[in-house]
Amino acid sequence: MAGKPLKVMYLNPVADSPGVDQIFADMAKVHKLPGTEVHVTALPRSLYGFSHIEYRTYEALVTRGIMRAVRAAAEDGFDALAIGCFYDTALHDAREISGNMVVTGPCVAACEIATSLSNRFGVIVGRRKWVHQMESTVRSYGHGERLAGFYEVGLGVDDFQKDHAETGRRLVAAGRKAVEEGMAESLVLGCTMEIGFDRELEKELGVPVIDPSIAALKRAEYGAVLKRQCGWGPSRKWSSEAPSEEEMQRFSAFPGNEPIFGSRIVIEAE
User: pLDDT per residue over 1-15, tens digit each?
Assistant: First the structure.
């Protein structure tokens, strides 16, 4: 893409971890457009020690970190940001203060892509614990009639990358149930740590399989392209209205005395 590179941030909303950070950086390097610069970031371990946010408790605690990261990225001139958790944690909150920066998440992005490829999709999740919240989110996006169901594999977030052979076996079994019994025509992987298994599942099951980390990155990038080429930036009317700068400063809503990012890997534009 000619001209100034697009700047996209992929924010992993948990504590920085070199191994996990690199997984997402490798994903971005493979899938980004040549004219896009991607920053893969995570939150500071000194403030947020979570390796996952499977629980609403952790989500509530980490939301402040997400908001501060979004604010910093918007002020640094990023075109778009993806919040890297399938719960789409703090998505609507983040959009409110994102200025002219596009903000998306894995769930909204993956569902949008799945429904553009098929009439009916299933979601493969780690644990039954996740289903109530994720189903509420999917339905809130208007996809209830297209949802074939949720199919769990009995793995927590931290378990997906431990034994790839066993994870793959469980994902294939759940995916086959979704396709053959739930009549899903496409599948969405319901955790960003299921990264790397989409091709294997597509080969085994014969339906499109959407990796939500890739979906979030590409939807953020696409939003940046639309903003750059068509002028379609975020709305700031009515429900999208942001608090005033004066009020946020008066309340010291975003103090500058704490670290915002714990790690950052930059994948340069070519």
Answer: 467 999 999 999 999
What class, spelled out in words, does domain 107-212 have in CATH? alpha beta
Report the chain's C-alpha Rg in angstroms.
18
The CA–CA distances, whole Å, from 269 to 22, 183, 214, 236 equal 17, 41, 17, 30
CATH 3.40.50.12500 boundaries in the chain: 6-105+214-267, 107-212
pLDDT tens digits, residue range 192-244?
999 999 999 999 999 999 999 999 999 999 999 999 999 999 999 999 999 99
Query: What sign for the dihedral angle of Cα 73, 263, 61, 214?
Result: positive
The pair of three-digit structure tokens given for residue 57, joined into one six-digit string: 């408790």
- Is the overall model pTM greater than 0.70, yes or no? yes
In whole angstroms, what is the distance from residue 87 CA to residue 157 CA? Answer: 12
CATH of domain 6-105+214-267: 3.40.50.12500
